[in-house]
């Protein structure tokens, strides 16, 4: 991976930037007052800054989204409500909203898949699908492939075994589950790929808005399972994509 | 079931009790100052009072144990440490100590199994065996049969499937598990018998001394699963025995 | 109980299924994309899949409901809001909505009670009735009988004693309570039937949305009490019904 | 109640104190460096400072104990271990140690009961007795009478009803219970006296060292029940004594 | 206090009840299906059943309210929203709604204060007033007097000392506080009357909806303080009233 | 700082107050029934009472606001919603509303900065700005200067290092962060000024509404960091201002 | 990876197993009563069963250890105390105990590294080293290489930057931290490799035995970070090794 | 404050360091394998690294202690047990152990107080003294003065008022309290200096090992109070010292 500094200096040398512009950009971020967009992120981490939409106005999301599009990036925004999404889609051609996962994705010209490897995205129940979708769009944004396995929770475990051979063909697995969160343990015991467990807030009463699923997954008896925050489909998709690149 | 009052009056009529004795016994308990032993329990609930040994001295346990033996009961004491157990066994012929489950059991003459039905006692890992043993001795005390299935947790789920037919032959199932507590959900989805889930304190860190297993089991996606307190093998064995009598 | 595989092969042999249909159905589930309905459930567990309505759209509920009706099952959906219920009732003749317990029940032709045994459904206060109703409709769905004992909490314990003889005639008991959740302990000490305790979210402040009732019930000093999740009337009714079949 | 200032000035006037001594004592406390003993407490609150022994050395306890004896007070120390108690008893004639409740009590000459009223001290189980004892010795220290009702928990509720008439004769009730802590609710619904509920740390697993009993009591459905900290027999005895004086 | 049974039999003897009516009423409650109103409550506990309005419909509240009015009682309902209150006030002449404390109170003819004693109701801040009001109306319902001391929290402790002499004249004290809940400790150290501490849900962040105030009060270093549930003004007023009767 | 008593007596001597007025004011607070405004606060603590707007009506806020303006104070109200703010601004000339921080500030004639020192206000993300704003307006109210450093969280730590020299010039630092709350630890290890950490409720799932950020900050491995309640920008600004005065 | 079944059948064909032996081994586990050792594990997951030593006797550990050595495996046991380790090392030549990480490792003849890739193991403080060691020995057991970076926590962040280039050369990173657990967020923002965060129980007070570090890591603002249980060095080393194989 | 780099270069120029030594030291830390001692700390933060003794061996503590002494620093180690302290004191002349606060302090030649300002260290009860001592020794190490006010908790609030004038003379206040943690709120409302609140683990039952005191202090109604971790006397002393330097 080329360093950000090399990238800017090259642009200066090539005449794409003035000295003033290069100087400004060497800081590595653009300051919009309400936000300092991290321009160096892709060079440091392999993927540009992702917009976390929760708690941002449509205007703020749009502002950052356009900045990133202008820089030529693949742009991903998560936790975007329908109204903000509509605003962005109206102004940015090519932006696509997934209403289940509540993601906005813009793929620049020249976007292509980076490997033949693939990530399996498993979810336990119908209600867990939105979290799975957030993971899947993230994987797509990062240039990777995924295969979906929905509604195969342990209450009817034959649904899992019916697809276990397909699951075993995946290079990394994401397992999304609410309730008692048992599925990552079962899957983790059946495969040799790394498993990322995503607890969801689907449940009631002593489920404690996902804390139960989270605790369950952290205490898995299966080896090879790591965990992300409750409902954090994005984090799972992002980490899984990094694993494909190892 | 004959009522306790009828029982006492019958004994009076038969001359086994004096009027004073009958009057005293109609209260339904014997008052030893530090404890009021519930003599009416068997007539009300189908099994005599069980001694919860934790926090009682060897002397107190022995005192109540002898009272119950004298009344002709099957006597069960749980959570009894080795020292107290030794004391009781020295003084009460026929008392048997299980050092794994830490139970003391005395079976009176004429003890016999009450049905042909049987309870399956499953545990997820080697470390869960003591809790399973507490359940098993309780089942034996109450006059029922059990079959053990040890160390068949979900990390190697073929160990469960290797025995699923035997498990399905049981009339009630007790499933003991620590860690993420996933096993009751998996078993619960495979059988038609009622399942009693027993969380154990086996785990570390975010296991919170069993709270994680407990929460997991309470949020099971399988139908037909009820739960008892952490490490409560006794409670599971007792309830399972009641279910055989329904 | 006949196995699911035998059932399908018999239908093939009888000409009710083509070879292709049988092959498809031997998988044991029907895949609708957003859900994999567990067709094998009744043969494995003794009752068909129950629809958990929370977090599902009216359309999704209706879709699965019709599938199950078409298969000839008794169909139960829980946690169904009034709008979804109206939609289902309009399209499925015979579906009945209970607005207190928020359940939808469809009983196929030939539905009948399976035993003479009965389940007592006790609740502590007026506000606990909806949870009791969910349990009762579940019991009805599974082909069993129940008797209701409402508003007999421990603040006026003579209301319980006024009915204790009727309660003792029940084969299994469900005790629903919020607040301090003391009722299952008191009932558990008076009967010989297994007791299923259902904590409810009725309370305020340090009640923690039902956690207090739940903890209280898990720590009961009475023997023979098992517990389900907060507000889980369905789970209690389901397990109680299984116990009748032991 | 005479004010502390009046008391000191009267002693000055009577010649029992010099001007310097009176000046020093008008501060209302004696400063020993490691502790400032509250000499004004009895005049402000009706009972002298009580020594909380936990975390204090035998030497510190002895020091304060002697100070209070010297001032002519009834002296109470709680949570005193056997070694410290032995030290105090050796040096202070008349000091009495209760090894169950772990209290030290010294009654000065002229100690007498203040009213005919009495406090009922109820406990649910044998293991709760030490907490009940702490309450009882506190009541005695404050010059009041108590009646004990031990081991009458709800698992055998006939033990409670056998004594309910005696209980109803008490002017204030203290109810001590561990496990699910149901007893204060049941008692609270049967009497017209104020009830002070004392949760204990007796239990295991989801009992959380007494938190369950505490939460249960705070959420009681009975009216007229107030609560103190876990294992706080002293606080209950103290408040109950104040209530007798209203 | 006359017993309920004596009361009913006397009415029968006097011809106010038929034999059938007396028989029915000897059960001690009236069964309305959704509720079993505890008619015996006043005779057992000294005050009739109080209606907990939360979670009840206007219709249900009205139904029970009228029943209690008809029986000649002082009637109190708590946690009643404005709509339900309007409905009751329209139909029951003499019912008065307190919109701050959200209580409904009906005082029958002949209502009068029972003692000259009085209860001090202290609150720490302006936002705690509604909880104080619930306590005050409860005290009034039970026939006792109260004095209000509002907004005298520890941030400006001179406001407390400005009124301490008035506070010391009260026979029982209720101290209502949110935030860190320090006020009951400070008051408890200054008076000789029993103190009932009421934590409120006023606060934010780590206040945890009142848990912080509750924990603080349970751990008070002052003697003579007991605690009720968060926002439970009713419970405090009720217990304080009982204390006046000791 | 002149004492409040001296202040009042001086006004009396100067003829600005009558004897009656002086007598009333020597109490140190003004009693409006629903609130006792602490007039002595500025003399005791160096800044007048601040209005906590949450849970107060527009009318109540306005009432106290006017009282404080009338007394000639700088007046600050926090957690004021837009409607209440509009009401106050309409009636009090010079009152200014900050819609981000939700503060109302009125600066009297003669307001001026008290020192050349300055407070750095750092926040980790865009969504933390409102809390930072509450701190900044508080600092302004107390007569001090601040410098803002927004959106420089650890995910792009070069944004922090780009400004570290400016940050090191501040005399006190406030660091506002949600999510994992790591920023105060990093800043704390780089500077010699005292750091006040403010956790925010920005996050989801296992963030527990700010508890995670709070716990993180309390456990910082950096020296010189103290912490305030979740979202408590006011508290941080207030304490930071006091530190400038040391 | 060859399947376990193929492996057994090949051995049968080759005459290394009798038909009876093959039949027995096709079950996939060896039943020792107290444990069912999962012989199929390596074929299913790529690494043989690892012995979790906590709660097992020296005898049990030794029994399973020998079984795995006999099968020709690399054998790893974690959480082994010094006494058990001594026993195993005496009886199994080649077993090596790491007293810091409390691991036992046996490498069979022919053990060799599987790739040139390497895992960076970072820890924040000296006290976190034992957890880092558990991870490192696990990595070694699985045939991979690691580089250690100890004591580079954020309180002196120049220690991290001094080694960042070496850290960036690693293919996967494990970051171990107690206290506020900030290090994974800082590292996660600086690298493009996947990061596994391991919270430790190092801390006190509000650290809650590691819960604070855990929550902090789950809420990281950096992308590409997944988390394992508190003190779970093994889990991190295992997952990191799997990632190298993707 | 001179920068660390300038310091090293000056020493090089002066001939106190060779080029190799200077190069090594410009890294800013000394690497001992088990620890990287932060040599730059004093230049960056104004005080050298402090040794946190918990979890370190006597040997490790001694090693780092000597390093810091050798560098000419004031050296402070906290949470040092008696055995480790003895070892250090034997080998390092001038090291002084405080057995109450469990601190080791070494003051180099030329140590002197830095200002005339002083810090008040207040504690609520006798058992809180060790935490106060940790704060006091830290203040001394950093070159500042403190005044102690012990055992002046709110249960006898006249003890606080007896010293309030002395307290008001302090420039910064540290308030240490366990139980309900009310003292910082009361003090905070009476003074104009910044207050640092230190919760302690002194209490029982619902005190939750200090969590109650911590929560209470975080929710203080007084302005100007910030909080540190439970029992963190060091942190309070350190921050208070920084405040004196503002």
Automatic annotation (TrEMBL), chains A, B, C, D, E, F, G, H:
SMART domains: AIRC. One of its GO terms (molecular function) is hydrolase activity. InterPro entries: P2CMN_synthase_LarB (IPR039476), PurE_dom (IPR000031). GO terms for biological process: 'de novo' IMP biosynthetic process. Signal peptide: none annotated. Residues 117-246 form the PurE domain. PANTHER family: PHOSPHORIBOSYLAMINOIMIDAZOLE CARBOXYLASE-RELATED, SLL1489 PROTEIN. This is PurE domain-containing protein.
